[in-house]
Specification:
- Helix 9 (161-173) packs parallel to helix 11 and helix 10 (177-193) packs parallel to helix 12.
- The protein is α+β, with helices and mostly antiparallel strands.
- Strand 27 and strand 28 (878-883) form a beta hairpin.
- Strands 4, 6, 9, 11, 13 and 14 form a six-stranded antiparallel β-sheet that branches. Strands 19-24-28-27-21-20 form a six-stranded mixed β-sheet, with no helix packed on it. Strands 15-3-16-18-17 form a five-stranded mixed β-sheet.
- It contains 34 helices and 29 strands.
- It has four domains: 3-481, no CATH class; 492-511 and 681-767, no CATH class; 522-653, Jelly Rolls, CATH 2.60.120; 775-895, no CATH class.
- The radius of gyration is 31 Å and the shape is flat.
- The longest helix has 33 residues, at 897-929.
Length: 930
């Protein structure tokens, strides 16, 4: 591109690009200034640990084929989560950027290029600059992408999709080698970077776009050949992401597909359409009362884009191909995201066409892209249309909105409390109704003003800027941020755990428990005239700090909107301060209460909650053995001292000092996969596409489901102690309330190591001295090929792992034991413990079974003294080998033939790509001369 051409492009687009840049800077200002970081849900518990592990693999020049730090061992390259080969991440790892910083840079970068890509794609379709800004902001900052911002493996693919659409358009105009190569590169990068489901959805969108272009091109045969070549070369380039995953699927919990129940989970209920305009109608990330779940059903877009999508339905002369593309996406997005509420989707599941596509609500992605295309078309058309056509398009738009929101109308008509809550939600004291009203006001001039007035007063610019402001306001706190210092502060348990791992030469294995004091958190009845709550609190200084109080709101039963909170020295004393909480103004899962720095001394005060009607507000309570801090639940007016005394319960209302948040609990307790940062493995949980037998083992025998209805940490310890020892769990991290009795752990033989206290929460680290070593021998086994039978046997009280190993494998062994009466005399010494090679020196006086308490998959091969031996699993998924008497070296080696093929394919494809790029570069000047 010449300098003159570049200046011309900038001159035409500088205002629009300025709006795009400003939107990007404002939205990510808190991250760009490095004061806050995104550190929530999957970003924290999956992608941050993955980046941590990837950095270690990249530093040694190894592929992340397997890691012993995820669960009991798990393949990473074949997992289908965050791509190891994401180009930006590869580069940042080279310069040793902290893994969490990599993810923050990644978010800001990808959302920036996604916005820019959608802008240039729309501009390539002759959409005006300002309308293209509208499409770009809808695509980038609407509910789907902001709701899934913590899903790193989504945006690393979806934010490149607009560039793929742009490149496919250029390819359709002039199919050639030079126009094909960029398509190959971008398609391969999308595949190696993202989650398979989002890669599939993105390529479906690309295929639909290509189909609309195909019938317009004159070189259909040559275009078809180019597409075939692109697909083949891109597949080969991305084979290191595709083939290992395809090989691994058979070993996962999805090998036989998902059940109908799982396939229909997270369906988008039709009445949830209200969140397109009121994203917090059913609550937020902390407190949510809508369908499952807040994040997966995120789809807000704002009133302006919806009106313009409706407008675009009338005009059909201009942008015909683009409009067909947008309408198809809009239709498919709506039909498929409804899941079990869609007859078509439900039928496809029932006949087995859809077997493994989980979370139908994610099809909202297609709806968002369709809106990103149609809204700009609507804006350009209405600006240029006659008054008559504008009015007709407005009527069609209104009809479109009425049809779209009719399910919500029916919902509130059949639910009086929902209607009452809706009316309170659209009060002008809330910011969403104000933005809707402003959007309507800004939209009307486009309909009734003349074309000259629209251009003179820049009404379209005002509309687009207001739409951007709306999306920023909706999304500003949709994915909460964490203070940088808090996120980067690592657990104080890490040095202790790392020392243990270094001394034992194998990773520590952690198991997280929630004590019953945490699990027993419950909700009170609603505060009302028949229930007043008085909670004793201890002031720590001369003034009362602001307090944060979690709550649950039952909208269906509410008849009164105000709860009064009072501070007093005694239940019957006059209040020192009183404040009123308007429930209509509450959007989160907690509210703050301040008493204007009320002067107090170091003494017990009382926090009282009253309401003149049924408020629907339920406070959260938990057990409390401290007599001085037990809550009073008073159910009579004007209670006597005796009635007050009898109203004292063995609970306390949960509260904390506002702003006192010196640690991230999950981070400090090394929850989920955060154990990776301590060079330890976890016995609790692994994400989607887990090794099937591992998930069954954990869910059946260790029960890491923290549902308080059936979970009890003391029962888990007592009932599963043999399993805990067998699994090589070296450490227990238990979360409990301050002053909780831990005697049950120590009386069970666990050794106290250290603790972390924060507010009213206590984390304690205990070591398990009786944990089995990583590798050990047993003289006797039983062949048990049915996993459920093995798990049932392991539940029996007479189960003794050392005496009898449950073995499974492709074929039964010829002998299950030596048959000798002599006791087993043996030594086991792990001499090499690498991700893909584990060597163990074994000395035994008789035929015996070696058990290595790490996961296995068909890719793990067993060698004894260098010779291939039969592969077995112990206790359904541990590595195992039958070892003859004598001195031997047993090796477990991860050998994936598919991965080796993928490496060769990728290297060959890279070589071909380089050659083609060189040929294209040589040919380009000749073509210009010709």
């Amino acid at each position: 591109m010449t300098a003159k051409r570049f200046k011309k492009i900038i001159a035409k687009n500088w205002v629009a690009l300025g709006i795009l840049l400003s939107t990007w800077l404002v939205f990510f200002s808190r991250t760009i200034t490095t004061k806050y970081v995104y550190f929530l849900d999957d970003l924290k518990i999956i992608f941050y640990p993955l980046e941590w592990a990837y950095a270690q693999f990249q530093s040694t020049g190894d592929l992340p084929l397997w890691s012993n730090y995820f669960g009991f061992g798990h393949p990473l390259l074949a997992w289908g989560q965050l791509g190891f080969f994401t180009p930006l991440h590869l580069l940042l790892r080279v310069i040793s950027i902290h893994p969490l910083t990599i993810l923050q840079i990644s978010i800001v970068f990808y959302f920036g290029i996604g916005s820019l890509g959608m802008y240039w794609f729309l501009r390539s379709q002759k959409i005006s600059p300002i309308a293209s800004v509208l499409g770009a902001t809808i695509f980038t900052y609407s509910g789907f992408h902001i709701g899934h911002l913590n899903h790193v493996n989504f945006y690393t693919t979806t934010m490149l999709l607009p560039w793929l659409l742009l490149l496919l358009y250029r390819l359709s105009i002039k199919p050639s080698l030079s126009s094909s190569l960029p398509v190959v590169i971008i398609a391969a990068i999308m595949t190696v970077s993202g989650q398979p489901q989002m890669v599939l959805y993105s390529f479906i969108v690309a295929a639909l776009w290509l189909a609309t272009l195909f019938f317009k091109t004159k070189s259909r045969i040559f275009l078809s050949l180019c597409i075939l070549g692109i697909g083949l070369l891109a597949f080969c380039l991305a084979s290191l992401a595709i083939l290992p995953l395809a090989e691994f699927i058979s070993a996962t919990d999805r090998a036989d597909g998902l059940s109908a129940t799982e396939l229909l989970e997270f369906s988008y209920p039709p009445h949830h359409v209200i969140t397109l305009l009121l994203p917090y109608y059913f609550g937020d990330h902390n407190y949510y009362w809508g369908a499952k779940s807040f994040q997966e059903l995120s789809a807000y877009i704002g009133i302006i884009p919806l009106l313009l999508v409706g407008v675009s339905l009338f005009f059909f002369r201009k942008y015909r191909s683009l409009k067909v593309f947008g309408l198809i996406l809009l239709f498919l997005g709506i039909v498929f995201c409804l899941g079990r509420f869609s007859p078509l989707y439900y039928w496809l599941v029932s006949i087995g066409v859809i077997k493994s596509i989980a979370i139908p609500g994610r099809f909202v992605f297609l709806f968002i892209i369709g809106s990103s295309v149609l809204a700009p078309i609507g804006l350009d058309n209405i600006v240029e249309a006659s008054t008559r056509n504008k009015i007709i398009s407005l009527v069609i738009s209104i009809v479109f909105l009425l049809v779209l929101f009719s399910p919500f109308y029916l919902y509130i008509q059949t639910n009086p409390n929902a209607l009452s809550y809706f009316l309170s939600s659209i009060a002008l004291t809330n910011f969403e109704p104000i933005l809707i009203l402003l959007g309507l006001v800004a939209f009307l001039p486009l309909v009734f003003a003349s074309r000259s007035y629209i251009k003179k007063f820049r009404f379209s610019y005002i509309l687009v800027i207001l739409s951007s402001i709306t999306l920023i306001a909706y999304g500003w706190n949709y994915t909460p941020l964490t203070a940088k210092d808090l996120a980067y502060t690592q657990s104080t348990f890490i040095p202790t755990v790392q020392d243990y791992s270094a001394n034992s030469l194998t990773p520590a294995r952690l198991y997280q428990l929630q004590h019953q004091s945490i699990s027993d958190r419950r909700r009170t009845e609603p505060i009302s005239p028949s229930l007043t709550i008085h909670q004793p609190i201890i002031s720590r200084g001369s003034t009362m700090p602001c307090l944060t109080i979690p709550f649950k709101l039952s909208r269906d039963s509410a008849t009164h909107d105000i709860v009064e909170v009072a501070l007093s020295r005694g239940i019957l004393d006059p209040p020192l301060r009183t404040t009123a909480i308007n429930l209509n103004n509450l959007t989160g899962s907690s509210f703050d209460v301040c008493f204007d720095q009320a002067t107090v001394s170091d003494e017990r005060m009382f926090l009282s909650f009253t309401s003149k009607g049924n408020s629907g507000m339920r406070l959260i309570h938990q057990p409390n053995p401290n007599q001085d801090l037990k809550a009073f639940l008073v159910r009579v007016d004007d209670p006597s001292l005796d009635q007050i005394d009898r109203s004292r319960k063995d609970i306390s209302i949960v509260y904390s000092e506002h702003g006192v948040n010196s640690f991230d609990r999950e981070n400090q307790q090394l929850a989920r996969h955060l154990n990776v940062t301590a060079d330890a493995s976890s016995a609790n949980w692994i994400g989607a596409l887990a090794i099937g037998p591992f998930r069954s083992f954990v869910s059946s025998l260790l029960d890491d489901d923290f549902d308080p209805a059936h979970y009890n940490s003391q029962d888990i310890i007592s009932d599963s102690r043999k399993i805990i020892d067998l699994a090589g769990i070296t450490h227990i991290v238990e979360t409990a309330l301050i002053d909780t009795d831990y005697e049950y752990l120590e009386s069970s033989g666990f050794k106290y190591v250290s603790e972390i206290k924060n507010n009213n929460i206590n984390l304690r680290l205990h070591m398990n001295p009786s944990a089995y070593p990583k590798a050990w021998l047993s003289k006797q086994a039983i062949f048990s090929p049915v996993a459920n039978e093995t798990i049932a046997a392991m539940r029996r009280s007479d189960f003794e792992p050392r005496d009898l190993v449950y073995i499974s494998g492709p074929t039964p062994p010829k002998k299950l034991g030596s048959g000798e009466a002599a006791p087993l005399q043996s030594t086991v010494n792990i001499t090499r413990y690498d991700p893909t090679v584990i060597d163990i020196n074994v000395t035994t006086n008789q035929l015996s079974w070696l058990v290595l308490t790490d996961s296995t998959t068909p890719q793990w091969q067993t060698y004894i003294d260098g010779k291939l031996a039969p592969q077995y699993e112990a206790f359904t998924f541990f590595k195992a080998a039958q070892v003859p008497a004598g001195d031997h070296v047993v090796s477990f080696r991860y050998e994936s033939k598919i991965t080796n093929i993928a490496v060769r394919l990728t290297n060959t494809a890279l070589l071909i790509l380089i050659v083609l790029i060189v040929l294209s570069a040589i040919r380009a000047p000749r073509m210009k001369k010709g």
